[in-house]
Amino acid sequence: MSPRVRFWGGLAIAAALLFGVAPALLSDFRLNLLAKFCCLAMVAVGIGLAWGRGGMLVLGQGVFFGLGGYIMAMHLKLSDAGPGGVPDFMLLYGDGTVPGWWEPFRDPVVTVLAILVLPALVATLLGLAVFKRRVRGAYFAILSQALAAAFAILLVGQQKVTGGTNGLNGFQSFFGFTLSDPVNKRMLYFIAAGVLLLMVLTVRLIMGSRYGELLVAVRDQENRVRFLGYDPAVVKTVAYAVAACFAAIGGALFTPVVGIISPADVGVVPSIAFLVGVAIGGRATLLGPVLGAIGVSWAETSLSESFPSFWIYFQGALFILVVAFLPNGLATVGRFFRRRRAEPADPVAPEPEPALETSGKAS
Amino acid sequence: MDALVSQLFAGLSLGSVLLLAALGLALTFGQMGVINMAHGEFMMAGAYTAFVVQGVIADAGVSLLVSLVIGFLVGGLLGLLLEVTLISRMYKRPLDTLLVTFGVALVLQQLARDVFGAPNVDVRAPAWLSGAVDILGVGIPKTRLFILALALLCVLALSLLLKLTPLGRRIRATVQNRDLAETSGISTRATDRLTFFVGSGVAGVAGVALTLLGSIGPTLGTNYIVDAFLVVVVGGIGQLKGAVIAAFALGLLQAGFEYSTTASIAKVLLFVVIVAFLQVRPQGLVSVRTRSLA
């Protein structure tokens, strides 16, 4: 099978499962869970692009997930409150007035534009500031993590305008559709599944382009790319911004699907947890991050319900075993065995090991 | 004047805590390029060591001094175990060590939760550390002074170790040029292991010191790990001097921001300042000059 056939085949199966099998077989409750997993998988697709293909260890995707989620939540809160109304939690904690920077989000168009543009803008600014000065590798990872820490602390600290630790919740409607109606819940699921497939397609297009080649080249030999006349900082920033945008869309859909967004979804630990699925599924593959993210979230939901402490051990062990011994993820297990059988006629050249930074020194 | 002195001291105190948390990292991350996310959990292990030791030795003063020693050994041995089993296999993949050690951190945290229970526990401070000392008209808690002194003592001990002992020479040689050190007959593998032992041991000491500031829980380490890494990034790698300056600078800055705004906005401002600082000095405050490509 050529990679092209494999990709389209995989995508067709995924589409059939998401749009045909799942809605037919799953209860409304399970379908809503699957919608949530799809939202988390969107973050994973972005991480797959930035980390798997671009070699940037993004430890702070929770920030962009949170930005998208909170922007959406602000709009939902404001539209629940009605024209000129004040969201309930502001009456409770604040002085009963809506702060000026909340006002634009009454408008649905502004909200959607903000979700698409604002997080990508933040990522672009941070990316250019960091990559232009050739701060990278471990240093970039730590900075992105510090951003997540600062963002979560900010959200908790500004309870009057962000709901604090409780986050924003209790949404009634989604762009005019009542959220308590099961039909609308199903609609949300279809939106999430559709957007997820679109994102996978987008990454596929990006990776097939000249830019995609450049991104992988920057990951493997940044200096050579620089000497060829390209600016690696720009190449990396674009991938980082796309990943941020994907995470924000995931967050924006997560909010109405789950019904709450809180600092617990965006801090340091959830930001790293996004990486588990990507690492397990295969960071540099196309469908690996999606399958990994959905699989891990599913395992978390089913295991942590009955054995909460076991789940944490399991998650820790997964991290250790997969990253240490199977750095290319489970998606490459098949290739691993195929190589064992030593078929000289295999037309699919095995993807080279991602040559990650060999030195943590930014000198 | 009073406000200034107390702010200044709040900054120095915060800086000394950051320094204790970051010293071990400056060794392991700065000198070996390994990101150990479980460093915070080694601190947590040190803190629980103090709790256990106090269960055996009732006298708070004696138990504190004993725990400082045992805390160092507990942290160090945990670090050694981690180095031998996992990290030694992954020196070529420093970013992946971050994820693996995060998995270790998760496991250690849950282990602490299962062994000691999720609620926080308290360690009694000795009588000679209760109360405050009057400096320039401002009452300064003795525990804070003790931690400041302990941090400086650790810096002194580590710099003596690096400057005067054969191990220190080997560490410095390995940092400056690993290949050349190896060809000169230094076992870089053994050096790495010892560096990791010492660095993680300092984390254990830091954990014991933190028990003086408040109750301790399984997530003790996560509260400090991000800030500790920022100290190392700002300080630059290869020399302890950078970490010392960065820790106190960040401590003073954060205390200053907290005084003029709120604690949560202070964190964001601090982050902005750090990114801006890296525009000027991407290699950190102090760095070993190399001719390698950046």
TrEMBL record, chain A:
Spans annotated as Disordered: 343-363
The organism's place on the tree of life at top rank: Bacteria
Record InterPro entries: ABC_transp_permease (IPR001851), ABC_transptr_urea_perm_UrtC (IPR017778), LivM-like (IPR043428)
CDD domains per UniProt: TM_PBP1_LivM_like (cd06581)
Subcellular location: Cell membrane
Topology in the lipid bilayer: Multi-pass membrane protein
Any single Gene Ontology cellular-component annotation: plasma membrane
One Gene Ontology molecular-function label: branched-chain amino acid transmembrane transporter activity
Keywords for the protein's UniProt record, in alphabetical order: Cell membrane, Membrane, Transmembrane, Transmembrane helix
Spans through the membrane: 33-51, 58-76, 109-131, 138-157, 163-180, 187-207, 238-261, 273-298, 310-331
Protein name: Urea ABC transporter permease subunit UrtC
Protein species of origin: Cellulomonas terrae
Phylogenetic placement of the source organism: Bacteria, Bacillati, Actinomycetota, Actinomycetes, Micrococcales
TrEMBL record, chain B:
Biological process per Gene Ontology, one example term: amino acid transport
Chief localisation class: membrane
Highest taxon of the lineage: Bacteria
Compartments, record wording: Cell membrane
Transmembrane feature ranges: 6-30, 64-82, 94-112, 145-162, 194-216, 228-253, 265-282
Keyword Manganese: no
A GO term, aspect molecular function: transmembrane transporter activity
GO cellular component, one term: plasma membrane
Keyword entries, A-Z: Amino-acid transport, Cell membrane, Membrane, Transmembrane, Transmembrane helix, Transport
Membrane topology value: Multi-pass membrane protein
A Pfam family recorded for this sequence: BPD_transp_2
UniProt xrefs under InterPro entries: ABC_transp_permease, ABC_UrtB_bac, BCAA_transport_permease
PANTHER family on file: ABC TRANSPORTER PERMEASE PROTEIN (PTHR11795:SF447), BRANCHED-CHAIN AMINO ACID TRANSPORT SYSTEM PERMEASE PROTEIN LIVH (PTHR11795)
Family affiliation: Belongs to the binding-protein-dependent transport system permease family. LivHM subfamily.
Protein name as catalogued: Branched-chain amino acid ABC transporter permease
Biological source species: Cellulomonas terrae
